[in-house]
Amino acid sequence: VANPRVAKDGVMEATNEIYFVSFDNQSIDFGEVNAGHKHMLMFGVGVDSLTNKTIQPSDANLAEGAALGPQTPSMHWGWYNGYVFLKMDGMVDTDADNTPDTRMEVHIGKDFNFNNVALEIHTDALEEDVAVNINVDFAKAFEGVDLSKDFTTHTGDFPALAKQIIGNFANSFAKN
User: Fold this and answer.
1) pTM for the complete prediction?
2) Are the CB atoms for 172 and 166 separated by under 8 Å?
């Protein structure tokens, strides 16, 4: 999640932060926002092009546990290709017997696959913590994809599939 921001009456409150989200790390603290009604939550899916090419997991100035720091498994392809924005691995059924039989690997990165998400949240931020719960429907990422045939992309080897999945994924978010 890149550069989250909230909007109130057309005024943007933004951060220039990147957060690593996984099944093990599903909660993000965006920090403080000004009190008042918030209309929209916006964020990027991926790493912006400047950061994607200039920050490396080995950079000494990254704090321990930083989103762009070393991860296991790695979320960085190297200085030329940058970071993986979306990584989904699993098994798919390729022979229609309702039993997953083939490894699926979806690893999407590259600057042109960065997407922005805008969600109406209509939440009042007062003097206390405000939580906005966002649901992600991972199945939406695969809408229009025939997983019996198209189940592997590392972006460069199947850019059309990568573009379709990351575009679908950007539309899989909804306020709870």
Assistant:
1) 0.87
2) no
First to last CA, the chain: 18
Residues 82-117 have pLDDT tens digits of 999 999 999 999 999 999 999 999 999 999 999 999
**Six token digits for residue 81:** 């290709």
* H or E element that contains 44: strand 36-45
Give CA angle at 165 (23, 147), nearest 5°. 90
CB 100 within 8 A of CB 91: yes
pLDDT digits 0-9 by tens, 28-62: 887 777 788 888 999 999 999 989 988 888 886 78
Residues 1-36: b if buried by 16+ CB within 10 A, e if exposed: bbbbbbbbeeeebebeebbbeeeeeeebebeebeee
